[in-house]
Structures
1.
Amino acid sequence: MNPRPQRTIQDRAFQILLVVSTMSISWLGMMVVHEFGHALFAWFSGGAVARVVLSPLAFSRTDLQRNPHPLFVASGGVLVGEALPLLVFGLWRLLRWPGWYI
């Protein structure tokens, strides 16, 4: 008997687990950064955050008590969601830390 086919099935199962867990953690991280952008821009505009809802199985949201500039706060999620990861990536490359490609 050749033990190699069993090993291949095990390897594939671990690869699938790695991909699914990486995607799940990345999705949650993206939601945290996005909602942070809304909360930050609400604070900048004089608004007040009532709560931030983060759920791994649904879309996240930021509920505001007071929102004097809705368009400004809405754009905060996108702007911070794009700028913060690029800033971290650039800093990581600048400092020549290992693993920058991840």
Note: The radius of gyration is 20 Å.
2.
Amino acid sequence: MLTATRNKTHVQKLKTQLIKEFDMKILGEVKKILDMEITRERGPGRLWLSKENYVLKVLEIFNMAEARPVTTPLVGHFKLFSN
């Protein structure tokens, strides 16, 4: 299970409750889950998820590792936002 929040107190409370109910281990900070690499920048509270290694593996399987990359721009009306 992976938990993420801006408030460490909430995570600690959840861990305490789960440990009381289930036989589990706390494995520490996650670097990878479901083949996604996770990168954090704690100061500003940023989080990045990357599937780059997975994509490279798929390209290799289909003999396309040497294919030329092309850009795929977002449409103009598409807006990214953070909650």
Note: Helices lie at 8-21, 52-61.
3.
Amino acid sequence: MDVPLLEMRGIDKRFPGVHALDGVSLTLQRGEVLALLGENGAGKSTLIKMLGGAQRPDAGEIRIGGQPVEIHSAVDSRRAGVAVIYQEFNLVPGLTVAENLYLGREQTRFGLIDHRAECERALQWLRKIGLDIDPATRCGDLTVAQQQAVEIARALSTDARILVMDEPSAVLTLQEVDRLFAIVRDLRDRGIGIIYISHRLDEIDAIADRVMVLRDGRTVGGDVASELSRERLIEMMVGRPLEDEFPKHRAEIGEELLRVEGLSRGRHVRDVSFSVNAGEIVGFAGLVGAGRTETMRLIAGVDGRESGRILLRGRPVPMGSPREAIARGVCLLSEDRKSEGLVLGLGASDNFGLPNLRRFSRGGFLDEGAEVKEFLRYRDDLSLRVSSPSQRVGDLSGGNQQKVVLAKWLARHADVLIFDEPTRGIDVGAKYEIYQLMNRLAGEGKAIVMVSSELPEILGMSDRIVVMHEGRIVGEFTDPSGTTQEDILGHAIAGGGAATQATT
């Protein structure tokens, strides 16, 4: 049998109070796509940081091409033929594509940077992955998918034999994901070994040759991708079988809480009208750029609308700012929780208290004891895993970060909750918990709007589905159980007239 391209043997890593990796072993062959799966906190990030030189193992060995290697830095990683593309790109927005490709290893002539040579060579690498852009373009002007392709081109330009991709499809459109998969398959066919990390299980059949699952810092199993069912993968990741991936419970539908009439803002939101009742989860589907997020930002007062009305319990309200929306019981869980929903450098209880400072203040001073006491109540209620109330929220897993955001809005006793991509970047176990929380909130009479790019999630958790295309509502499905992904995609891609299904 051929010598593996990569072997990680008995890797062990401890942090204060945490055994992050406990004797983990991994192999990767040439021309293979290995899907590395596991919940947030399972040890995936720690493992790949060792390949990238950001962490060093306490014990164990790394071999590349059968030879032991020591990877103490990013330079060592590159020299060993390893390239890691993290979920948050390492590109400098103000530099050009060519400058980013050769950053730190500039092409020089007579002691000066040879920009022409860099552009010519960058163009060659871009063409190898089918990317048709000008190397002189600033990276800050590229789309997310183009930036990701630049990262791949940069990896190839270092003669990488091993490519690690961390959640590469998290913010891509369906068409961009197809293009990404085409690039990955082409790289695999050229003999490059790829470690592919994703929470999207539907991608495993499409792209992976083999699967390895981590749980609590240990290897719990793996096999040829085609021989592992979705249910078995979930059970391996969470340590128990989930009776239903989407545990939808229908609540009693009550009075209308939110109505939107003729909402418009430029080309992004055009004459949008819909309503949500107490106890109802209304799912918003559509491609990236369809106007879903823009609509929700108008309702939450983040952006100003040009026309239209917002009514709460039948009464028109101005919603001129987020402060006003929050005061009226409308809260938005933003799609980008890290930059818009949280202050990553503050503790969990501090983030929880930000929209509730007036309640926790006494004589103009913050009563930290009262803030922490209420935070602990929501921590227990939401099964929020933090080492202490003061733990930096930036150090929490994606699922626990989302729970901190949810806790601060629940403390406001909001009646209308807007979840924009509520499970993006969250593992399957945490997703299940978020779904159960949504069920509970609906059962308590809350009105929930859920924006999601994952169609199984839309179908599995919605009481009613609204589809948007180019800023307009183009379809509504009142019977999700009788609706298919193809039904939704047909409207999301091509638009078309209203398509309302009667509930069966």
Note: Confidence is low (pLDDT under 50) at residues 497-504.
